[in-house]
Amino acid sequence: MKTMHRILFADSLFWLSRPILKLMDIRFERAVVRRKGIRWCLDLRESIDLSLFFTGTFEPDVTLSYQKILRPGDRVLDIGANFGAHTLRFAQAVGPTGHVVAFEPTRYALDRLRQNLALNPEFSSQVEVQFSFLGRTPSAEIPKAVSSSFRLASFSESEERNPKDFGFAKSTEGAASTTLDLFTAGLPGRPENAMDFVKLDVDGNETEVIAGASSTLKSLRPVFLVEIAPGHFEDQPERFHSWVSGILSQGYRVYDLKFQSLTAESIALWKGTPLGAYSNVWMVPEEKIWSFTERARS
Questions:
Q1: Mean pLDDT, residues 39-67 taken together
Q2: Which of 33, 159, 175, 232 has the most CB within a 10 Å radius?
Q3: Measured distance CA(228)–CA(240) in Å, rounded
Q4: Percent of the chain with pLDDT over 70
Q5: Nearest in space to 143 (alpha carbons), one of 182, 119, 169
Q6: Residue 20: pLDDT band with limits 50, 70, 90
Q7: What letters, b where the CB count within 10 A reaches 16 and e where it falls short, cover 209-241?
Q8: What are phi and psi of 14, to 5 degrees?
Q9: In the CATH scheme, what is the code of domain 58-297?
Q10: How far apart are the C-alpha atoms of 282 and 262, rounded to whole Å?
């Protein structure tokens, strides 16, 4: 399903359920709920929040996939964390011996992420929040705004959507500029048999993140869970091929969310996802394929 169709579906769902929500005295702009063991402060005018409210998860296929893979003690770098829809699920999966680092460059989403973490103090020692933009160099210029709101159509008449991701841009003022290499260079060791994971979902800025991650790819060798969205790169497809090839060229293989092997070529991933839609795939270092598939089977 294309992204805009998802938003329109969520909009229809909201209006169908609005009378019931009113009867339940639920505030649309601030609904505090518990879903699958995690407390959330949700804005039901946002499509991601609405999904969490009704189903308990955002991107259930993605969530089910990483819940089969993650183990206590693992470390997850959540790049493009937004308000924590996956961050808190990661923390739940890796347990108190694991560690999650959430990178978010917009104050709008960052404040909401911290609010959700405050509702779940059991994760306070596991989750580290980085108000930063990951680029190709530490001094790289940060975009003034990036998409971090995906408001329902009925509540966005006065705002202009990004035509590529159908989101609304929010300010990055105050965010630090750094690189993935600079951050991972300071990471401590991890427990034996634990693995490092990177969830990468940055709405077209993947090229910059991976350009600043060459040492991470060569030394840390994390397993990646990445969003494939060719629509972000429709005007400059070479930028898409640059970041995908930047990972694959370091001895990575590609798997879908059901752990089926895919062709490890950027052009195959480009053609496999229609413009305006997105998909998620795993990218796994060759030397970790056995461990990865063993986890998937267990």
A1: 94
A2: 232
A3: 9
A4: 95
A5: 169
A6: confident
A7: bbbbbeebbeebbbbbbbbbbbbbbeeeeebbb
A8: -60, -50
A9: 3.40.50.150
A10: 10
CB within 8 Å of 132: residues ≥ 6 apart:
103, 105, 175, 176, 177, 178
What pLDDT was estimated at residue 158?
60
Domain ranges of the chain: 58-297
Q: How many residues does the chain have?
A: 298
Q: What is the dihedral of CA 284, 103, 73, 60, to 10 degrees?
A: -70
